[in-house]
Specification:
It contains nine helices and 14 strands. The chain is of the alpha+beta class and about 325 residues long. The chain folds into two domains: about 10-130, D-amino Acid Aminotransferase, Chain A, domain 1 (2-Layer Sandwich), CATH 3.30.470; about 135-310, D-amino Acid Aminotransferase, Chain A, domain 2 (Alpha-Beta Barrel), CATH 3.20.10.10. The strands form two sheets. Strands 7, 8, 9, 10, 11, 12, 13 and 14 form an eight-stranded mixed beta sheet that branches. The chain has a six-stranded antiparallel beta sheet with strand order 2-1-6-5-3-4. The protein is globular. The two termini are about 40 Å apart.
């Protein structure tokens, strides 16, 4: 029998300033919790590297906007920060990483509406090991298929109850899309809209690079490097990794662009990546079986982006 993956739970509880550590091998939620019965809640996933949680403020901000979209009142950010630190410290004490390179902890912030009629939501932090598969994909790259999400790019604005830009607990559709991609022999998927735009991955943001050689007319030739991501107002989740990476890339001289993007833009790109807080930067080798760019350019640009990303707190 395989033992369950090590997990640390820390509930936000006003009686415990730094959060209340709970036994993850024991039941901790009511079976009637609306998070369990309706997927009614929101979450965040962030990575702690060598004990330091990354982009905490950006994740707390997005947790706040997701919660606002569901009319959920959250505890103060300070309570979250303390519970995050407790969870990471407890996890690293109980499960020390064998090497500094493997010292990564996945930290989830989870909020459910609680049981019917609850005065406040149920909130906890979960710390668990980072999946080896995700770490591997940063190196090997991934093959991706395009999948129709079934919405147009204006659905989010027209029908805000779809909660398209919020990170809700209802990820069953995203997980089903991943399984569908796996059955087709791919590692991941990129959603497209019914009006033909590139959206996002089921758990990631799409990023592409275009390199353009510009002749300045004075005999000098330079390469303009452009990073592009789909526009945020197309019913996608604004990625904290994309936001942080864009800021770092801009400082390093990249030009930045925000869609709209169509699938042909992906096929024409010099490199495409799926990026997220846990897997970080996964280069896309093939989309629908077609190679994107060349292995050498993918490798070089991925190394550059990794270096920029490593500097992000
Ligand atoms: N889009 C979706 C649907 C996601 O679930 C995620 C992350 O899980 C992302 C984008 C990337 O967001 P971040 O970079 O903040 O992890």
């Amino acid at each position: 029998m395989t033992s369950p993956a090590p997990t640390v739970l820390v509930f936000l509880d006003p009686a415990f300033e730094n959060g209340r550590i709970a036994d993850s091998s024991q039941p901790q939620l009511m079976a009637t919790d609306l998070g369990a019965t309706r997927g009614d809640g929101v979450f965040e996933s962030l990575l702690a590297v060598q004990g330091r949680p990354r982009k905490v403020q950006a994740h707390l901000n997005r947790l706040g906007s997701s919660a606002a979209a569901l009319d959920l009142a959250l505890p103060e950010q300070d309570a979250w920060r303390k519970a995050i630190d407790t969870a990471i410290n407890e996890f690293r004490n109980v499960h020390p990483a064998p090497t500094p390179e493997e010292d990564e902890v996945v930290v989830k912030l989870i909020v459910t509406r609680g049981v019917e009629g609850a005065a406040s939501p149920t909130c906890w932090v979960q710390a668990s090991p980072s999946p080896a598969g995700s770490r591997r994909q940063r190196e090997t790259g991934i093959d991706v298929v395009l999948l129709d999400r079934g919405f147009d790019t204006e659905a989010g604005e027209r029908a805000p109850w779809l909660l398209l830009g919020a990170k809700t607990l209802s990820y069953a559709v995203n997980m089903a899309a991943l399984r569908y991609a796996h059955k087709q022999g791919a590692d991941d998927a990129i959603f497209t809209s019914t009006d033909g735009r590139v959206l996002e991955g089921p758990t990631s943001t799409v990023l592409l690079a275009h390199l353009e050689t510009v002749d300045d007319g004075d005999g000098s030739v330079r390469t303009v490097r452009r990073l592009i991501t789909p526009q945020h107002d197309s019913g996608i989740l604004p990625g904290t990794s994309q936001g942080a990476l864009f800021a770092a890339a801009k400082a390093a001289g990249w030009e930045l662009g925000y869609g709209p993007l169509v699938p042909q833009d992906l096929f024409d790109a010099d490199a495409v990546w799926l990026i997220s807080s846990i897997r970080l930067i996964a280069p896309v080798n093939h989309i629908n079986g077609k190679e994107i760019g060349t292995p050498a350019v993918r490798k070089q640009l991925t190394a550059e982006l990794n270096e920029l990303f490593a500097g992000i707190e």
